[in-house]
Amino acid sequence: MPTILGTGEHRYRVVENWARLPDGWSLTDVASVAVDSKDRIYVFNRGEHPMVVLDREGNFIRSWGEGVFSRAHGLHVDADDHLYCTDDGDHTVRKCTVDGKVLLTIGIPNKPAPFMSGEPFHRCTHTALSPKGEIYVSDGYGNACVHKFTPDGKLIKSWGEPGTDPGQFNIVHNIATDADGWVYVADRENHRVQVFDGNGQYETQWNNLHRPCALCCCGGGKQPNFIVGELGPGMAVNRKVPNLGPRLSIVDSRGNRIARLGGEHGPGIETGKFLAPHGIALDSRGDIYVGEVGVTDWKTSFPETEMPATVRVTRCLQKLEKVT
């Protein structure tokens, strides 16, 4: 029997052994995923082939990015099928075509801004676009802020600083926008998503989340839903506490939970469990693709267990097929 996650209208079938890679290939950590207008899935990963492209059935199409990217972290695709690839290893965002041609680079490769300076970038994490094509970049590991750029990469403004108050961040890890121009920021270690207007003015925040890591806006309407990928416990003292994730939560535009997928019994490689949801995308049929950093997270979740080889090969990428 297939494994089903979720309830009501939000039920998903776990598609096992979905990705079909060339012999001998490994994805390792899948930092982020994106889906273009033709339902091609772009898998931004930390293996030898940074961008692996698959079709809806999991068949391999091509790869690119070898020798270009240092450490995959964030991926966003725009309405014209341009890909914004956020590389926290060399502190850049690259705008690329679907076959890997670099059209724009924001940031200076391998030259980070000073730590916590608020200047772009120091280990940037993700990218999103405004309705006008302005580029928002979350700058979250060596900074605690969001930067806004013109479509051609000129800095407009930055906002945020370290802390726990509204407008402050403790690892600004992911970012998304909606059709009205609201900006949603996954403030991971503050256990919340903060909501801003397009100029960085704080509006509200969503609570009752556990280390929100991945963030995906579903639909272009006035009241979209969001899928939030939540990490599990990060400390030894609560490592085995149930009902903390890792999991996916589906929320409305006000942050009210609609459904929750998994997470009741902690991490695992068993069907229906997650390791470390780090990137989420949807295709035209509503199927969910989840990139996970299970290799990096393995010692946090299972410090005394040897990591199975399957985690490095394909287990860091999952497909959840919407049940209709």
TrEMBL record:
* Keyword Nuclease listed: no
Pfam families listed in its UniProt record: NHL
Can you say where the NHL repeats lie in this chain?
A: 128-152, 160-199
Q: Which Gene3D superfamilies match?
A: TolB, C-terminal domain
Q: Which InterPro entries match?
A: 6-blade_b-propeller_TolB-like (IPR011042), NHL_repeat (IPR001258)
Q: Which UniProt keywords apply?
A: Glycoprotein, Repeat, Signal
The keyword Secreted is annotated on this UniProt entry? no
Q: Which domain of life does this protein belong to?
A: Bacteria
Q: Name the chain's protein.
A: NHL repeat-containing protein
| Originating species | Bradyrhizobium jicamae
